[in-house]
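Entry 14. Structure prediction run on the chain below.
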Amino acid sequence: MDLMKNLRDVPSPRPEAYDRARTALQAAMDEPVVTVVPPKRWFSWPKVSAAAAGAAAVAAAVVVGTSGGSVPAGPSDAAPQAVEAPLVKLASAVQAAGTQPGDASLIINTKFGLDNKPDLNYTLYTDKGRQFTGDSAKSLVDAVARGDAQPATPYDGKVMAAARLAANGDVDKARIAMITASGNALGVGLSPAEADKAWAAAQAETAELFRKMGKPFPGPKPRPTGKDLENLVNNHLVSNIEHALFANAADAEVRAGVLKLYATIPGMVVGKTDVDGRAALTLTAPPAILDGGTDVLVIDAGNGLPIREEITSAESSKHYVVNYKSSRVTLAEVAAGKI
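Output returned:
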C-alpha cells in the first residue's frame, strides 16, 4: 500500500492517530473496525485508499470464511507440499538451534522508497515484551538509556504467543490465534449466526467512530463470503506473522513459528536464491491475497532470519525494497552504545 511506503515522511503517530487512521482504512477496505494499536513498523500490505493518507495505518480485522457455513480457519488441504516441506524443515532446524544469548532482539531495517534514498529504522523487542524504536543508532541508544519503551500492546502479545504456539506444535490452533490477533469481526470458528452477530457488532463500532469524527457513515457492508474471504484472511495472516517476525526476528521460537505459519498459506511459493554468497529462500505470496500486488520476502536458508523484502503495489506498480539485519543483544549493551 502506497501509504505504508510513505510512513517515513510522517512522524511517529500517537495512539489517537492510529484510531483515526484505522477508521478510514477499514472503511476503505469494506471491513469493520477492530481496536488494535500496533507500534510503528515497515508495513508490507500492497494497497490502501488515500482516505487514510497522512496517518499511520494499523492492522485490520482478520477474517476467513466460506459461503453460508461456519467460519473455519485451519490450513487448507490443498496447501502444496512443495511449500510446506522446506519451511517446516527449516523451522525445526531453527528451533533446535535455539535462541542466542541476550535479553532482546534487535532488527535494523533499511527502506528504499521511490526516491531510492535509504531510511533506517531500529526496533528492539525485549524478552519481557517491551519495545524501543529509533531512526538511528544514537536515538535507539538514547531511548534505551532513558527507559523510553513503547507500552506493550495486546496485539504484540497475541502475535508473539501465536508464533510460539506454532513453533511448539499446535499449528492449527496457532493459525487461528494469529488470524484473530487483531480481532474476530467475522467470528472465525463460530457458527454462521455467531459470525453474523460479530460482524454486526463491528459494523456498529465503525458507525460510532464515524459519528464521533463527525463523518457520514457510508452504511453497513455485508459480511464477505467465499473465495474473497479466503484471500482476505491469508492477506492478514501474512501481515500478522510478518509483524511478529519484523519485531522479534532474532527470537528463534518466534521465527520458527512464523515459518510454520507461512507453510499453511495455500499458493505460497518457496524459491532458492543467493544473497552475498549466502544461500537464501524467497517466500512469494500469491497475488490473489495481495490485491494483485507482490510481496517477496528473502530469508536466510540456514537460520530463517529475514534479509530483504521487495514489494510492488498493484495499482501503481511502484516498487519498494527493505533490507533487514537481526541480532540478539542485551539492554545493558545497547544503553552503553554497543550496537
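The longest strand covers residues 319-329.
Filed with the rest of this week's runs.
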